[in-house]
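User: Can you predict the 3D structure for this chain?
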Amino acid sequence: MKAMILAAGLGTRLKPWTDHHPKALALVNGKSLLERNIRYLQQFGIQELLVNVHHFADQIVEAIEKNKGWGSKITISDETQEVLETGGGLKKAAGYFEGEEDFVMMNADILTQLDLGAMIRQHQQMKPLATLAVSDRNTSRYFLFDSEGSLKGWRNVNTGEEKPFNISTTIAGLRQMAFSGIHVINADLLRLISREGKFSMVDVYLDLCADYQIKSYDHTGTVLVDVGKPESILKAEQIFT
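Assistant: Here is the predicted structure, written as structure tokens:
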């Protein structure tokens, strides 16, 4: 199985580090987020991956080359002309996954102890179009799932906005869960992406969830650190040695 690490973001929440570096190279106890996530994937037998780059792309490429991919075979998807967000970045990289049945995609700026192997097994048993790692935690934006763990919509709790419009009034008992930035995706999804240019995977899933099964993988209680702010680096350093 192959994977994609999303490392093209500007990392504005991680300033001042990201004024001069890409967020994927932010250090936690002397190891970059990128290295840690490459080694995380290796724990589950994934040693071929693609990394998309934009902000200080040359530094990421240099780090990968200097460290020989930390033992993995790494391909670069160059977004230096325009950052394409999560969905656009995947669409640009679609050719990399040709011939694959399923693949993993994850954000570079998260660190977790989630059992990715168990998540992949659930995905392979249930065979949805995608499986999304989620947990019951506080955030401002949530995916909405029915009692079977199938994606039905999205909610911004700060504004009250829902997609599709007022979906919670149409389907009773929807459970809101926070997305953790890890996906297991069936390659069939790639041909179903109709959007162009810059767009989010959230929008892709909302486009497709009425007609295709998109499932949750609930890892509530498992360590997950969104290393998006300087203070979260300190939190991560207490957990990830």
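The domain at 2-239 is CATH 3.90.550.10 (Spore Coat Polysaccharide Biosynthesis Protein SpsA; Chain A). The longest strand covers residues 175-186.
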